[in-house]
Amino acid sequence: MEDYGAGMSAAFVDYDNDGHLDIYTGNMWTAAGQRVTSEPAFKPDAPPEIREIYRRHTRGNSLFRNRGNGTFEDVTLSAGAEFGRWAWSSDAFDFDNDGWDDLYVANGMFTREADDPSLDVDSFFWRQVVAQSPLTRKPGTPYDDGWRATNRLLVSNGAQAQHERNVLLRNNGQGGFDEVSGSVGLDLDQDGRSFAVFD
Question: β-strands 167-171, 177-179: how paired?
């Protein structure tokens, strides 16, 4: 099992009710990152496999199905389980009591909606930090400058973790998930970092 992402959380879930625990990892879904890393000008000197790793890093969460023989398969896209925004924590629970585990993801991100686009730290981060990051272990000046500028934006504008709504993925019982956060009132945007499931 191999996963490229921010790796913020992991949860066990038997999403297909086969008696084997599957793994759901909380990573990072970012529209800005997807846009930047898909541009031809993004790291043009990098090998294709490295560019693909950067693109994978923006895809979002991952769902690994337990085959029951000690191995896992990545079923993220076929199950529709990738969308989770900037996932700080995730867990499985059967919120609608239909016998199928659903997934809930708490989010918080260092960006916000603002009238001033210069405050969109997510876009800035991917354009000026990630795009400038060196392919070797030696940091370069543009990369260092990008990190310093990101830190200045965060310090001068206060907490940026706003407008990143939590996500509820309802298990449809057919091997996939439907995003129902808004319709059930759980798309909270109070800068979520974690949550607890209890009765």
Answer: antiparallel
Q: Are 150 and 129 in contact (CB under 8 A)?
A: yes
Q: What is d(CA 101, CA 118) in angstroms, rounded to the nearest whole number?
A: 40
pTM, two decimal places: 0.79
pLDDT tens sequence across 2-61: 777 778 888 999 999 999 999 999 888 788 888 999 999 888 888 999 888 888 888 889
Give the 3-state secondary structure of residue 40. coil
Report domain extents, the chain: 1-109+161-199, 110-160
According to DSSP, residue 89 is labeled E
Nearest-angstrom CA–CA distance, 85 and 28: 6
Question: Which token pair is 184?
Answer: 């059930």
